[in-house]
Design goal:
The structure holds two protein chains of two kinds. By secondary structure, chain A is an alpha+beta fold. Chain A has a single domain, classed as Phenylacetic acid degradation B (Ubiquitin-like (UB roll), Roll). In chain A, about 20% of the residues lie in helices and about 20% in strands. Chain A has a three-stranded antiparallel beta sheet, covered by helices on one side. In chain A, a hairpin with a 6-residue loop joins strand 1 and strand 2. The longest helix of chain A has 12 residues. Chain A is flat. Chain A starts with 9 loop residues before the first strand and ends in a 23-residue tail after the last helix. Chain B is built from ten helices and no strands. In chain B, about 60% of the residues lie in helices and about 0% in strands. Chain B has a single domain, classed as Ferritin, core subunit, four-helix bundle (Ferritin, Up-down Bundle). By secondary structure, chain B is mainly alpha-helical. Chain B is globular and about 55 Å long. The chains are: A alpha+beta, B mainly alpha.
Chain lengths: ~100, ~260
């Protein structure tokens, strides 16, 4: 079966708002290839001085966790309070940490 | 409207009007772009050009006590000094929004020209012009990258896209020569250090344009320049229609603001 590809692939866009901060996911767009995807991301997502750096990645390359498995993946962490540093009492000789 | 029409003012108006009129043309794509992302890109590009035009119009009108709005909205057709290339409609038959191939090629070839011009204007003896150029050159470099990218993709694309790009190039080519004709306005600017004579940009423009068109696998048309006098205020039939849209609000409601 031969199919003609008429739709451009989808890309996820990550923008870093300031030097030193992380790139944050801000949306997606269609573009024929990576170079054009960066340009289009600049046009669509940084028009109002939102960023100093852009990453794009093909959406198909992102492997996501299954929302249906949310319970078994994340709920077990609910009752593990001892994994947080706030669970532990600091010795009084340590004033601030 | 009375303008002093000094050589210096005309030099500045030629550049300001080229930016203003091309901005208006590109803004015709707003809401009609081939894809959402490019629709925004063209609107961004038009806004950059508008910003450049505003800065130069403000500066060019100061000596006559005229502001940017008066110059843009109240001048008559023959008082606009942009080369004819900038006012041509996107489609040969005038249908809107138009021929995307033509849009891409004109934006590419004029971005090469603007980039050369702004680069040289950064060294202008007029410090305000130099400051405007320093900001504008970054914008035109991006325009060149973006439009040039499309130019290569579509020229070196499918048989259909190649044919459309070649046809657009044939339409544009006769109008290019006007960007490089020397005259008294040019000579005075060069002599005073206000800016380069446009004629002096020809060689470098040609080299860059030829390299880009070669990458786009487009054949260079024969040089058969039309005699155009846009820079002297003698325009094609298209500018009047463009201005009737651009100036409509100020003509219908004089002095109207919001």
């Amino acid at each position: 079966m031969s199919t003609t590809q008429n739709e451009w692939p989808l890309w996820e866009v990550f923008v870093r708002s300031k030097s030193g901060l992380d790139h944050k996911h801000c949306g997606s767009l269609h573009a024929p290839d990576s170079a054009m995807a960066v340009q289009m991301a600049r046009e669509v997502y940084t028009r109002r001085q939102e960023g100093v750096s852009i990453w794009v990645v093909k959406s198909e390359h992102i492997v996501a966790s299954d929302p249906g498995e949310k319970g078994q993946l994340f709920d077990p962490a609910d009752d593990k309070v001892y994994r947080h540093p706030t669970f532990y009492k600091l010795p009084s000789s340590v004033d601030h940490m | 409207m009375k303008l002093s029409n000094t050589l210096e003012q005309r030099y500045l108006l030629r550049i300001a009007d080229a930016a203003l009129i091309l901005s208006q043309r590109n803004s015709e794509w707003c809401g009609h772009g081939p894809i959402l992302e490019e629709d925004l890109a063209l609107a961004n590009l038009a806004l950059d050009l508008l910003g450049q035009a505003r800065a130069l119009l403000t500066h060019a009108g100061a000596a006559d006590g005229l502001d940017e709005d008066q110059l843009a909205m109240l001048r008559l057709e023959h008082q606009f000094l942009n080369p004819v290339l900038f006012e041509l409609p996107h489609a040969a038959d005038g249908r809107k929004p138009g021929d995307f191939a033509f849009t891409v090629l004109r934006n590419t070839l004029t971005a090469v020209w603007f980039t050369l011009l702004w680069t040289r204007l950064q060294a202008s003896s007029d410090t305000e012009v130099a400051a405007i150029a320093a900001k504008a050159v970054k914008e035109s470099r991006y325009h060149l990258q973006h439009s040039g990218d499309w130019c290569v993709r579509l020229g070196d694309g499918t048989a259909d896209s190649h044919a459309r790009m070649q046809a657009a190039l044939e339409r544009i080519w006769p109008y290019v020569d006007e960007l490089f004709q020397a005259d008294a306005v040019d000579a005075a600017a060069e002599a005073s250090g206000l800016g380069p004579s446009w004629a002096s940009l020809r060689g470098e423009w040609r080299a860059q344009a030829e390299a880009l068109l070669a990458r786009a696998t487009l054949a260079l048309p024969k040089d058969r320049p039309n005699a155009h006098g846009g820079r002297l205020g003698v325009h094609s039939e298209h500018l009047g229609h463009l201005l009737s849209e651009l100036q409509y609000l100020q003509r219908a409601y004089p002095g109207g603001t919001w």
